[in-house]
Amino acid sequence: MTSAKRPSAQKRAPKQHQNAKPINLALQGGGAHGAFTWGVLDRLLEDDRIYIEAFTGTSAGAMNAAVAAYGLIEGGRMRARELLHEFWQKVSTVASMSPLQPSPIEKLWGQNDMSYSPSFMAMDFFTRMFSPYQYNIFDLNPLRDIVNELVDFEKIRANKEVCLFINATNVRTGKVKVFRTREMTLDKVMASACLPFMFKAVEIDGESYWDGGYTGNPALFPLFYEATSSDIVVVQINPLHIQNVPTQASEILDRVNEISFNASLIQEMRAISFVKKLLAGQRVPDNRYKDVHIHLIEAEAVMHEAGATSKFNADWDFLRYLHSVGYQAASDWLEANFDAIGEDSTIDVEALYL
Q1: For 139, 277, 305, 345, which has the most beta carbons within 10 A of its beta carbon?
Q2: DSSP string computed for 107-135
């Protein structure tokens, strides 16, 4: 799948972006940790030297992508930034009314995870004993209402400027499903973020879908086939590397979570590395295959330190903190790597992912 044929016709940059460099964004999922991606997007949207041609996103990455894409369509960079801020603020407001909160001990220690939160422990136990088909009979999901309020999917489907790819997991086949701009709906974004222990599978055209993180976090291959820019910027939430081997039960669970939600990305990166080697050795016709430039924006140490349970912590102070980390990470990346956009990768794919 990664050996992509070049798009049949090079799409010209929209008039307002004639002097800017095009990039594609690949946005990982990770619950509340998606606020890191919000910060990254906020900074990238500030910089008129680049423009975003396409998004591929999963789970929280899908919501960030849908909101940002609609903002760009509706009113440009500033509107996209405003809508992202509004989205995360609404998420925090809704979460503040939930019993799922950090415990007083965690707040006292300045921690953002919920490893000691009685409400989180109760939820974790409850969702292991009962399915959402038993306790969430009406399939309530406040995130659905927020996305529906902020995004006009009819306008997304009708637009010709920004490409949007949303990834979900087909429950029956176990395969990744990519929903494209022309078919985008609220249900398809929510399918990408459907945690199977909390929500019923989302039914679309007779198939059932769960969170896309299990099979494509995010899927990169649509960008090879259907976007013209050769530059893919991966905004990575789930750390690849850690310093110490976990020994505590909670630490082990955190690491299993990180590894699981990076597995599909690693597989695609291996395929990219293989194709790049073939192209470099002129072993395949270079006019049929796309040599992509891979870039990475991440903050591994911060995201790992936050812990997997903090993906359920939508406290506004925590979300703003993650936003600031993402904003700074994007600033640092732009300063170090802007000149390489359109020219070369800024990471060693083989060393990092193989």
Answers
A1: 345
A2: HHTT----TT-HHHHHHHHHHHHS-HHHH
